[in-house]
Write a structure and sequence with these properties.
Distance between the termini: 22 Å
Number of domains: 1
Number of strands: 8
CATH superfamily: Gcn5-related N-acetyltransferase (GNAT)
CATH architecture: 3-Layer(aba) Sandwich
CATH class: Alpha Beta
Order of helices and strands: EEHHHEEEHEHEEH
Low-confidence stretches: none
Oligomer: single chain
Mean pLDDT: 90
Helix content: 25-40%
Number of helices: 6
Amino acid sequence: MSFPEAIDTERLHLRRFVPSDLGAVEAVWADPDVQESLRPGEKVDPPAAARETIDRRIANWQRDGFGLYLMIERDADQAIGWTGPWLQDLSLAHTGEVEIGWTLRRPWWGRGLATEAAIAAADATFAHLDLPRFISLVHPSNKRSLALAQRLGMTNDGVAQHKDRNDLELLVYSMSRESWGASPHSRSSR
C-alpha cells in the first residue's frame, strides 16, 4: 500500500512538496518564530533555507516513498507550514527512525491547526508504514511543540544530542502503534 501523497482534514490540505512551492516555503522560513523553533540560535537565510527544505523534502519522497507534507489552510488557500513523517537524521542515536514533525507560521498559532495536521500525519503513518513507533524531536524551549506532543499522548523518552551541534540537545517524544490505536485522536478509535 503506497503512502498517500495528499490528505485533507476539516481545515487543511496536506500534500507533497513540489519545486514551485519555493516562495511559500520561503514565507514560512521568514517567520522569526519558525526560525527559532527549528534552528535555535542560528542566523537563518530564508531563501537558502527554503531551497534546502524543498530539495530535501522532494528527495525524501523519492527515496523513501513518504515524507513531510506542505500544510495549506483551505479557506485561505495559503501555505502555512508543514507536517508529516520522515526518516529523521538530526540525532545519530535515532537515525533511521520515523519522526513526525510539524511547523506552523505564527499567524496561525492557537487555532488547533498543528494538532489537526499532526493527527492526520500520525493516522497516515500507522496506516501505511509498518513500524512499532514514531518519534518527535523537540527543542526544550519550544513550549508549543512540547504541548502538542503531550496533547497527542506522546511519551517523553529523554534527550538526544543534535548530530551537528554539540550545544543542542533535543527532547525525544515517542508514540507506539498500540498507544496511538487506543488514543482518542486515532482514526481507529473514532
